[in-house]
# Entry
Amino acid sequence: MTTVLHAFIIGLSLIVAIGAQNVFIIREGLRGGYVYSAGLISALCDCLLIATGIVLVSRISQRIEWFDDVLRIGAVCFLLYYAGNAFFNALRKAPVGWAQAEAAQGQVPGSRKRTIGLAFAFALVNPHVYLDTFVVLGGMGAAREGMERVLFWLGASLASFVWFMGTGLLSRRLAPVLQSERSGRLLDGAIGTIVLVLAGHLLMGVWEK
# Structure
């Protein structure tokens, strides 16, 4: 359970950051669209990408001894950038993130086919998704052995399901709260802190080797 919880917290800290995919899910909820279809597709894509990342990284690491260290350093650099961006958003004066979604309330929802197509696009045509799932989660999952890898994948995947489905379900309540300046600052500050701690943890792993 410790492994599952650890992976869940890491996965959630990466996915909660305000971005186009999250705004898309909330917009669908606000205008009464096919939000559950969009959330399910987003979560399933994350599950597949995380599993693929863990498998690929573990196989490459078995053949190339230094690959794991290079991947860890790359993950640290990405997480430091990620944390810095979150802290920047927390400190800037303008309200952040979810305000973009408010305009969707009252709009006519698109077709299911269009919503599904957009969900796949936001889930797969996004460089940050691959950095999250392959470099960070894939690398951390591959560093574990046997059943621990499965449990890590389970925890990280569960974070995606909880976030995307929960966001869709609570979109009408979340949008007015998260679009406020104070809530946005607190959220970004918390994300930045968690990601910074994670980067330090990975860096210590490189030094210990």
User: Anything to note?
Assistant: The CA atoms of residues 55 and 113 lie 32 Å apart.
